[in-house]
Amino acid sequence: MALSECSLEMLQYLKLKSVEELFSDIPASVRTDGLRLPDGLTELELRRELEAMMAVNRTVSQQPTFLGAGVYHHFIPAAVKTIVMRSEFITSYTPYQPEISQGMLQALFEYQSFMTELTGMDAVNCSMYDASTALGEAVLMSYRLSGGKKFLISRAISPEKKLVAQTYARGADIQLTEVGYDPMTGSVDLEDLESKMDPDVSGFYFESPNFFGLIEPGAAEIRNILGAKTMVVGVNPMVLALVKPPADYGADIVVGDAQVFGSSMSLGGPMIGLFGCKMEHVRKMPGRLIGLTVDSDNRRSYCMTLQTREQNIRRGKATSNICSNEALLAVASAAYLSLVGKSGLKDIAAKNIEHAYLLASRIGSLKGFKAPHFKGTHFNEFVVTSEIDPNRIHEELLSNGIHGGFPLGKDFPELKNSVLYATTEMHTKGDHDRLVNALEAVR
């Protein structure tokens, strides 16, 4: 390969005879013999090639999907995208001189305000990465609050979320112990919880709605069993438009994912972790907190009241090493909630409950299917059990242009013939008809 004049000059300066000599310290066995890249494309050719690749995919608008399990398809008003695409927001990373970015801080303050109103908590930070990292941080915060080296966690949660929590706990030498669920209702097994309480337990995490879509009926009893221990509640914040907020039944920490407010599924990410707590615990909370104050001229202004991350304060004093967050998606959530309003959010949440009830009833009426599997109040997900192999059902649905639910057998062996289905306001009666007819045809 002919070397440029610049390359020859550099080799001469380094007193080397060739490029090969420059890289002689790297063993030949780990070196490549060059990248076999195709010739460059024009913009038009590139567009055609990418469009051909994209055409292989089927989107939720082309193929109804009933796969929830943590990521949900909700309607997003066009104005939300317009707002977050503004250069004032979309180019804003973490403001390193935050008080200059008053617009961004105000938008984040509004997000925090919406979340505190929904959860009932005194303080909500301006986001974590997702619900899983929020849970991991809650495990660590529970330890900071009580010092206990054991943390109890409900079995009826996402398996991926559980793995993230275990990763967080392992680094802090915290032991995670599962608490079972009632096989009839899918809710927390209160006897099992009580039997696993001991002085070294720092807290307990459960969800409402849980992974099976069930709203927890025993939250008050859980609070009584825990006593002074930390109660951590995981929520789908959309359901809080209709049910009691976690603060009302004594939650110390609330975590969840605000993806349901104005963020698309985006192949599973990015999400937006919700994290809130009581005011008495706020200095132990991870992440950033935007506050309202006045400047030297007595004008209203916004500031970063707390930012206890390791980039801002001494590492030993930091509550989290999450150095960024999901600020842009927090802006999207604030925009979404501003646009739909209180009554609009209630209508959307009610529509989700109605759709789940109607779809579960229709599937449950089919021969060989039981739906919902658990007795209780569901939000927008429910478990369906059948004697037919879930993998076969899934393949049959795909062949009919439908993406089915989440098979539970791998993570919950006791539910090997069960599938978790989700439905939202985005599904029409026609979508439900297609699913029910396709299930009925599986034999």
- Main β-sheet description: 7 strands, mixed
Rg, nearest Å: 26 Å
H-E order: HHHHHHEHEHEHEHEEEEEHEEHEEH
Uncertain residue ranges: none
Would you tell me the structural class of the helices and strands?
A: alpha/beta
Helix content: 25-40%
- Mean pLDDT level: 93
Q: How many domains, as an integer?
A: 2
Strand percent estimate: 5-15%
Structure description:
- A hairpin with a 5-residue loop joins strand 8 (288-294) and strand 9.
- The protein has 2 domains: 78-336, Type I PLP-dependent aspartate aminotransferase-like (Major domain) (Aspartate Aminotransferase, domain 2, 3-Layer(aba) Sandwich), CATH 3.40.640; 340-441, Aspartate Aminotransferase, domain 1.
- It has helices at residues 5-13, 19-22, 43-55, 78-84, 87-90, 102-119, 131-146, 159-171, 190-195, 219-226, 327-364, 390-399, 429-441; strands at 123-124, 150-154, 175-179, 201-207, 230-235, 253-257, 273-277, 288-294, 300-307, 369-370, 381-386, 406-407, 418-422.
- Helix content is 36%, strand content 15%.
- It is globular and about 80 Å long.
- It has 13 helices and 13 strands.
- With 443 residues, it is of the alpha/beta class.
- Helix 4 runs antiparallel to helix 11 (327-364), helix 6 (102-119) packs parallel to helix 11 and helix 7 crosses helix 8.
